[in-house]
C-alpha cells in the first residue's frame, strides 16, 4: 500500500528557501508571485493491505521521524 | 490563486534521502516499510485569478526553476 506524507512549515514559521525561490522567480520575470512556501513529500511503500492501519502507521512514522511538530504540520494520504 | 507544484525524482533515479529514511524507520520498528521516495512541494500564491493561466504560469516556473527535468518530474495542482 502506498501512502504519501506531506510535511509543511506551520504558518508563521520563516521559510528562507521559499523566500529564495520567490526572489529567483521575480528575477526570472514571474512578477505575479506573491508568496512561496516549501515543504517535503515522503512516499512510503508499506507491506500493509488495510488502508486504516496503513494510515495509522504512517501517522506514527510522521510523529516519530518525518515531521518536527514544533515547527511543521503533516498530512497523510492513502494513494493505493 | 494558490498553486501547488510537487517535484519528485524520476523512477530509477537513486534517492539517498529516501534510503536513509527507510533505514531509520526500520530501526524505529516500522519493519513494514518497503521503500521510501522523497520529493518537494512548492506552494505558490499568485496574483492571477484565471485557473488555466495560473496553471500555465506555474508550469513555466517549474520548467525554468523548480524542477530539474533531467532527473525530476513535476505535477501542478490548482488549490483555490
Automatic annotation (TrEMBL), chains A, B:
Annotated GO CC locations: cytoplasm
Compartments (UniProt record): Cytoplasm
GO BP of this protein: 'de novo' IMP biosynthetic process
Signal sequence, renumbered to the chain: none
Family matches, as InterPro entries: PurS, PurS-like_sf
Record's keyword annotation contains Nucleotide-binding: yes
Pfam family, one: PurS
Keywords: ATP-binding, Cytoplasm, Ligase, Nucleotide-binding, Purine biosynthesis
This enzyme's EC code(s): 6.3.5.3
Record-level Gene Ontology MF annotations: ATP binding; phosphoribosylformylglycinamidine synthase activity
Annotated pathway: Purine metabolism; IMP biosynthesis via de novo pathway; 5-amino-1-(5-phospho-D-ribosyl)imidazole from N(2)-formyl-N(1)-(5-phospho-D-ribosyl)glycinamide: step 1/2
Catalysed reactions, semicolon-separated: N(2)-formyl-N(1)-(5-phospho-beta-D-ribosyl)glycinamide + L-glutamine + ATP + H2O = 2-formamido-N(1)-(5-O-phospho-beta-D-ribosyl)acetamidine + L-glutamate + ADP + phosphate + H(+)
Family: Belongs to the PurS family.
Assembly, per entry: Part of the FGAM synthase complex composed of 1 PurL, 1 PurQ and 2 PurS subunits.
Role summary: Part of the phosphoribosylformylglycinamidine synthase complex involved in the purines biosynthetic pathway. Catalyzes the ATP-dependent conversion of formylglycinamide ribonucleotide (FGAR) and glutamine to yield formylglycinamidine ribonucleotide (FGAM) and glutamate. The FGAM synthase complex is composed of three subunits. PurQ produces an ammonia molecule by converting glutamine to glutamate. PurL transfers the ammonia molecule to FGAR to form FGAM in an ATP-dependent manner.
Record protein name field: Phosphoribosylformylglycinamidine synthase subunit PurS
Species whose genome carries this gene: Acetobacter oeni
Amino acid at each position: 500500500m502506498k501512502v504519501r506524507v506531506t510535511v509543511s512549515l506551520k504558518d508563521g514559521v520563516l521559510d528562507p528557501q521559499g523566500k529564495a525561490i520567490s526572489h529567483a522567480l521575480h528575477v526570472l520575470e514571474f512578477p505575479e508571485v506573491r508568496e512561496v512556501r516549501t515543504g517535503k513529500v515522503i512516499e512510503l511503500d508499506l507491506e500493509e493491505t488495510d488502508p486504516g492501519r496503513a494510515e495509522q502507521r504512517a501517522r506514527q512514522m510522521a510523529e516519530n521521524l518525518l515531521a518536527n511538530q514544533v515547527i511543521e504540520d503533516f498530512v497523510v494520504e492513502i494513494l493505493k
